[in-house]
What does this fold into?
Amino acid sequence: MTRDAVTTLPQRVRVAARDAGWWAQDYVYAVRAQARALRDRGAPDSLAAGEGTPIVLLPGIYETWRFMEPLARALHDRGHPVHVVTELGGNRRPIAESAGRVAELLIARGLDDVLLVAHSKGGLIGKHVMAFSPAGTRVRGMVAVATPFGGSRYSRLMPTPSLRAFASGDATMRALAASADVNTRIVSIFGPFDPHIPEGSELAGARNIVLARGGHFRVLGDPRVIAEVLRAAE
It folds into this structure.
């Protein structure tokens, strides 16, 4: 065994143990968030009041807006109107179709200078609006958390078309990757380890922020996320 192997093996063990711990904590967060979504049935209309920068929430796949509710309420408490695209439902539809529903909401509510706040798939939907929809001119920018901008190699192993759509070779994913002009208006926030996106969420041309802790879901609760959204909005 070489000296390099001797010195790096303990490091690899520590990193693996760290990532396993983050993974476990990640799913605890996700289960609690989904339980909250099932328990709370109130309408989000009360969040749409405020004089600050309008914010539109874009949750991830299989998530309703309730998954991002703690973040939404923190932003609303700072005076920002938070809009929910209830037409997304559980966010299982194709990215382009979902982007169309977001665009419809922007137009129907007359929203301008909007900040999109997205998680995971929501970041792809948001970028689609910014890059391809006429309503994209209404968007100031986007803060995307744990978004697979470069796809995920795990997607080809998934059992449903909605999950396999995150493959880097998918036509929509290729089109989004080629539309780099809007990247300068995006802040991509992610941890050093994401169990669902081994490629990471770094986006060329965007402002990329790496958090101290890893995960795919629990990073939504990181104080840095709220701080960066407020920075973009205010």
Q: What stands out?
A: Residues 21 and 216 are 13 Å apart (CA to CA). Confidence is low (pLDDT under 50) at residues 1-6. The chain has seven helices and six strands. The first helix runs from residue 3 to 39.
